[in-house]
Write a structure and sequence with these properties.
Distance between the termini: 34 Å
Number of helices: 13
Shape: globular
């Protein structure tokens, strides 16, 4: 491993607009988690203070990575990747042996290491970021060395990404976890789509996804027995029952969605009195934080969160557009694919537009591993913005 020298460093220019957006999200996060406290199970307390710790230490992590050097961070990726693969493998081993220390099963999944006095560590949250960074480097190197713009070269690129992404995806799915694999897939697809591949791949992918989705819905409404034979009567399929027919399954698979819709639909323009328990639902500090915001602040609160999330996305897009670093621009494409998918899925599942999954709302939902994982690409984005400011002489660029 060869680390670049940091003895001569370019002046860092703070992007105060981006910092202000993140500060607003931080405030919304703390307020939302505080409003969720009446809905939490007994014994769960102090989440607001913990979220403050995660944000403060996360900001420190950004500073450390900027001082360490972004190129050095990319150089460390293979080592981080294999460390996370080892951790993911331990989680699978424990699934069959129950002998790996510090592993705890939560919601029927083995995805966390629980260290007393320290907190939880979820390797898959960091793996999704590592895959985005590694794929950005793979695509950038491939584009610099490819001999022609052909289908063969595109296929070669796909294989390079598959070799890195498939092993951790399998381990994460076996935990079992559906949400993070979906995030990884959408982020990698976003990167590949803007990598310069032939447009025919994009058309075929979109049409293929649409055909599968329409076919699934057709089978669901016409022959559910066939659906069970194809996929098994699993929790994942049950979620589709709860999504498409929530009132029919209101006491089972559709209960979460039904409660979320009640929270939003009954809140009106400004919401119910603060912290009043009108509707209860599971994981109010994580997956259902958007329902908490709607219940307490109504249409005005949810609109503010949607707007703030959109502003963050546009800011990232602006930074990437003005950057000259192709590798980092590809990385931002992956981050946008990840964050936009999470935003759409989290808000969509609460409003009934999409099926419920264990996907949180970026920078707002409670969580240490997920929040810390966002800080890694944030360091790269802050460095990109600093370079843009240096080049253009204005931090609005």
């Amino acid at each position: 491993m060869r680390l670049a020298s940091n003895l001569v460093q370019q002046k860092f220019n703070m992007d105060w607009v981006l910092l202000g957006i993140l500060g607003c999200l931080f405030s919304v996060s703390l307020l939302s988690i505080y409003m969720a406290t009446p809905l939490l199970s007994a014994g769960i307390s102090g989440l607001v203070n913990r979220q403050i710790v995660w944000y403060v230490t996360g900001a420190m992590l950004v500073g450390v990575l900027l001082n360490f050097g972004i190129n050095n961070l990319y150089g460390m990726l293979p080592y981080i990747y294999w460390f996370l693969m080892f951790m993911l493998s331990l989680l699978i081993i424990d699934r069959f042996t129950n002998m790996v220390p510090f592993v705890r099963e939560i919601n029927n999944a083995r995805a966390w290491f629980v260290f007393p006095g320290i907190g939880n560590f979820q390797p898959s949250e960091f793996m999704k970021i590592v895959l985005i960074l590694r794929s950005a480097e793979i695509i950038s190197t491939h584009n610099q060395t490819k001999l022609s713009n052909s289908y063969a070269e595109d296929f070669s690129l796909f294989m390079k990404i598959f070799k890195v992404a498939i092993p951790p995806l399998i381990l994460i799915i076996l935990q079992p976890d559906t949400g993070i694999p979906l995030i990884i897939i959408f982020s990698l697809v976003a990167m590949v789509f803007v990598s310069g591949i032939k447009k025919a791949w994009i058309y075929v992918s979109v049409l293929g996804f649409a055909a599968i989705f329409i076919g699934f819905l057709f089978i669901f409404f016409t022959n559910q027995q066939l659906l069970v034979k194809l996929f098994g009567d699993s929790l994942r399929i049950s979620r589709f029952y709860g999504w498409l027919e929530p009132e029919k399954y209101v006491r089972s698979w559709g209960n979460q969605l039904y409660q979320g819709l009640l929270a939003l639909g009954s809140a009106g323009l400004t919401g119910h009195p603060l912290k009043e328990v009108v509707v209860s639902f599971a994981e109010p500090q994580n997956d259902f934080i958007f329902a908490v915001i709607g219940q307490n602040f109504g249409f005005i609160g949810t609109t503010l969160v949607v707007t703030l999330s959109g502003i963050l996305d546009l800011k990232f897009l602006s930074i990437a557009y003005n950057s000259d670093n192709q590798r980092d621009k590809l990385m931002v494409a992956g981050v946008l694919g990840m964050i936009v998918f999470q935003q759409v899925e989290n808000m969509g599942m609460i409003t009934g537009l999409l099926p419920i999954t264990g996907i949180t709302l970026p920078f707002i939902s409670y969580g240490g591993s997920s929040l810390w994982s966002y800080m890694i690409p944030l360091a790269v984005i802050f460095k990109m913005s600093s370079d843009n400011i240096q080049k253009n002489g204005a931090f609005f660029k």
